[in-house]
Amino acid sequence: MTLFPVFLDLSGKRGLVVGAGHVGLRRARGLLEAGARVTVVSPQAHPEVRALDLELVERAFVPSDLEGVALAFACTNDEDVNDAVLREAEARGLWASSASRPERASMRLGATLRSGDLLVAIQTGADLPYLSQALRDKLSAALPSDLPIAAWSERRAQALTLPEPARSDVLASLKDEIRKAVGA
Ligand SMILES: C[C@@]1(CC(=O)O)C2=NC(=C\c3[nH]c(c(CCC(=O)O)c3CC(=O)O)Cc3[nH]c(c(CC(=O)O)c3CCC(=O)O)/C=C3\N/C(=C\2)[C@@H](CCC(=O)O)[C@]3(C)CC(=O)O)/[C@H]1CCC(=O)O
Ligand SMILES: NC(=O)c1ccc[n+]([C@@H]2O[C@H](COP(=O)([O-])OP(=O)(O)OC[C@H]3O[C@@H](n4cnc5c(N)ncnc54)[C@H](O)[C@@H]3O)[C@@H](O)[C@H]2O)c1
């Protein structure tokens, strides 16, 4: 299956996390980092989930938990519950992922690498987190830590306001400088 890569702006949207073990904790943190509002539904919760700024509902999942939600993460240790979350999400036209049945889900996750706003996500397409993590670590070690990304972005924005041929000249030299800086 060929997956479509996309980066979501979740600010102000509600994400539902079903199951508050260590995978649910990772999903809740990731959603909060992205500015989403988060509801976690789980009878038991990892202690670190309680410390987060989210709504924790301490009971088993029911389909109405999906009301008002933009996307859902099935992270329980019960495959039937994770399947039910996928099924109910699908019925409501919502994207959902499953920690235990990824191949049945409409949404897959990957290993991620962040440096400021720079975000790299790696998905093997083969349910092989060891490979995506290994590639992420390799890329992380190779990435220069002091890239002047904001300054480059500002120079590009300014160049786009220039008339030709200045615009193309400035953009070409910026492109060369960036490729050299990252060793491409
Ligand atoms: C990269 C990362 C991102 C993330 O999940 O955040 C990620 N797994 C991570 C960690 C991790 N995964 C597992 C352990 C337990 C210990 C171990 O086995 O080592 C740990 C360690 C831990 O949890 O700490 C085992 C595991 N993983 C999956 C299953 C189910 C299955 O295989 O069916 C099982 C077997 C469960 C079991 O049977 O117990 C499934 C998936 N895991 C994916 C991604 C997706 C594939 C991505 C790809 O192919 O590229 C996919 C398909 C899910 C999806 O699409 O959402 C994250 C790194 C976090 C980081 O370091 O940043
Ligand atoms: N994708 C990944 O990266 C990854 C990594 C490790 C494990 N896994 C898979 O994900 C599953 C979850 O892993 P974990 O380590 O977070 O498990 P865990 O056992 O730590 O947590 C499971 C949570 O689900 C909750 N739960 C159980 N039934 C529920 C229900 N009906 N409604 C709501 N919540 C319910 C439990 O109370 C618990 O908080 C594992 O069983 C495994 O299959 C995936």
Automatic annotation (TrEMBL):
Gene Ontology molecular function: any one: ferrochelatase activity
Classification via InterPro entries: Met8-like, NAD(P)-bd_dom_sf, Sirohaem_synthase_N
Reactions performed catalytically: precorrin-2 + NAD(+) = sirohydrochlorin + NADH + 2 H(+)
Entry keyword annotation includes Iron: no
Keywords: NAD, Oxidoreductase, Porphyrin biosynthesis
SUPFAM superfamilies per the UniProt record, alphabetical: NAD(P)-binding Rossmann-fold domains (SSF51735), Siroheme synthase middle domains-like (SSF75615)
NCBIfam families on file: cysG_Nterm
Organism of derivation: Deinococcus yavapaiensis KR-236
Documented EC number(s): 1.3.1.76
Lineage: superkingdom: Bacteria
Protein name: precorrin-2 dehydrogenase
Pathway: Porphyrin-containing compound metabolism; siroheme biosynthesis; sirohydrochlorin from precorrin-2: step 1/1
A GO BP entry: siroheme biosynthetic process
